Amino acid sequence: MAAMALAFTRDEPERLSVALIAHDARKDEMAEWAAFNADTLSNCDIYATATTASSVARKLDLRINTLLSGPLGGDAQVGALISEGRIHVVFFFWDPLTPQPHDVDVKMLLRLAVLHDVPIACNRSSADLLISSPLFTDLGYHFREQGEHVGERISVWVRLIRSDDLARCRYVFEHTTSEDRYCRFFQFKEDLDDAQLRQFVELGDNVVGLLAERGDEPVGMAHAWIDGRDSAELGIIVSRDARRQGVGRRLVERLATELRARGVKELFAYTLAENVSFAALARSLGLTRTGVEAGVATYRRSL
Ligand SMILES: CC(C)(COP(=O)(O)OP(=O)(O)OC[C@H]1O[C@@H](n2cnc3c(N)ncnc32)[C@H](O)[C@@H]1OP(=O)(O)O)[C@@H](O)C(=O)NCCC(=O)NCCS
Asked: Could you tell me the pTM of the whole model?
C-alpha cells in the first residue's frame, strides 16, 4: 500500500496534533512507519518524545515538537497534552517484552487516551488502519469532543478566529440586542461597520480570538487582549438564542487554555456592575469580583 497525501476535509485553522512515541525496541519501526506516512503526517502538528523524535528525524524531514524522553517524563507530557485536548491521535509503539522504568507513566498515558477517547494505535497494523481511515483526516471528527453537550444539548464547536471570519462575527453581533452590545462595549452600538468588525478578526500577536459555532451557525465570540504584564482582558458576547447553554463558559475555558499556553498568568474583565449574566458566568468559571468603580465591576482569575 502506498502512502497517500490526504487533504483535510474541514478548512479549519486548527490542525490535527499527533503524538509519536516508541520504546527502544520499536524505534526503527516507528521511524520507518513515519517515513512511509510522511505526506499525511506533514499535514499534522507532530509531538514526539525525545529519542523517538531523533529516530524519526533521521528518516524524514518533519517539523517535530520534541518532548522529554519517555523515562524522563515524555510519556507523562503526552498524557497531560491529551488531558488538555491538545493531542488528537497517538501512535504509541510500546514494547511489551521489556520492563520500563517509567511503566507507571505508560499506564497513565494509556488510561488518559482511553478516558478522553483519543485514538491510540499501539502496534503497526493498528497504526496503518488508523492513519488510512477517512476519519483520520476529518477534523470535524477529531474536534467533535471540543463541543459540549449542555443545557438543551446543543453541540458547540470553539475555534480560533481567522481573518476571513468578518461575516461570521457580524452574524453574532446581529443576533444580540442593543442591550447586549451595551454590556459588551459600554456604549450603544446599533451597527458595526467593517472597520470596527475587523478588529475582531485581524488579530495581532497580543490578541486571542475565539468563535463558537453550533453546526455552521456562529453563536458567540470571546477575545483576550494581552496587556504585556502577564494578564489579559476578556471581552465576550453570545448570541441571544444560544444563551445559558454553556457557550460562554466553553469560550472562556478555551480562552484560558490558549492564554496559559502563551504564558499569561491572569484573566480579568470589566463589566457593568449590574450585568447579572456575566456575574453568573463569572461565578461558574471562578472569576472573582474584585471591585466596583463608577458602575463598572472588575473580575479576576488566575490562570
Ligand atoms: C455574559 C454572557 C457572555 C454569558 O454567556 P452564556 O453563553 O449565556 O453563559 P453560559 O451559558 O456559559 O452560563 C454560565 C453560567 O451562568 C449562568 N447564567 C448565564 N446567564 C445567566 C442569567 N442571565 N441569569 C442567571 N444565570 C445565568 C448559566 O446558567 C450557567 O450556569 P451553570 O454554570 O450553573 O450552568 C452573555 O449573557 C452575553 O453575551 N451577554 C452580553 C454581553 C456581555 O455582557 N458581555 C460581558 C462583558 S464583556
From this structure: 0.61
